[in-house]
Amino acid sequence: MAVTGATGFVGQAVLLAAGRHNLDVRALTRRKQRLRGGVEWVAGDLADTDALKRLMEGASAVIHIAGVVNAPDAAGFDEGNVNGTLRVIEAAHTMGVSRVVHVSSLAAREPQLSLYGASKLRGEKLVRASGLDWTVVRPPAVYGPRDTEMLELFRLARRGVVPLPPNGKLSIIHVADLAQLLLSLVPSGEEVTHQMFEPDDGEPGGWTHVRLAHAIGAALDRRIRPLSLSPRLVGWAARADRMVRGHKAKLTPDRARYMCHPDWTVGEGLMPPPAIWHPRIDTPEGLRSTAAWYREAGWLK
Length: 301
Known about the structure:
There is one protein chain. The chain has 301 residues and is an alpha/beta fold. It has one domain (2-297): 3-Layer(aba) Sandwich (Rossmann fold). It is 41% helix and 17% strand. It is built from ten helices and 14 strands. The protein has helices at 9-20, 49-56, 74-95, 115-128, 151-159, 175-184, 209-219, 231-245, 253-259, 283-297, and strands at 2-4, 25-29, 39-43, 61-64, 99-103, 133-137, 141-143, 161-164, 169-170, 172-174, 195-197, 207-208, 225-228, 263-264. The longest helix has 22 residues, at 74-95. It starts with a strand and ends with a helix.
């Protein structure tokens, strides 16, 4: 099995899950990695066609996780999420890999809201037209150990006040549950071939922004005050974050636009078949264990 994006947040969880199942993985990496049982590291990135061929040599399937979540312009998103996906598809054809599990994003559902979402949708379209045996997964917000995105909310909750987007709702999923789903989708079958899934934690109707903020506070044993901001204020905060942190900004103007969308819950009827996968991690407990990991890692002071 080949994996792109193996050194990222979701990719690391996939490697951990693969190890528990004694699965051999060939994983793409841009930097030298430590030796790891069951993992063969392949040096390269999505722009390196030779590396992608080496990655897929002898593989039965590829889990394509790698992508760009933050870029200064449309070209940056397209290079990672569109051109990179095209190179993965071409390498799969060249090396005789017939199956691809493609990790997209719920943002692809509303491509007009962000450059990121538009690029993820274009990547999906390439996969669907590839002639491969494909499955597309659109995860909602993903949280868990090693996540640097949700970490911002935990840090704010520690201070007792959590600024939020305008009133709305969203779905979330623990990274370990998502990793298990991706591995469960590697075997081909009529229930998963040429299908798109939107998995979550199983919470009916998802989470309102305010309720999730309170759940994060509870995971930290803190009472918090959620503050729902207007779209204008969220946009202002994004511009300020970019001025202060530059290319390291988490709240970019592009991200601010899709954060202000009122409904990022998964689509009805798009959960994976329960015989193949179902979420196992209760979100309040998952948030609490994530907070504990952040503390132990020194990420929460």
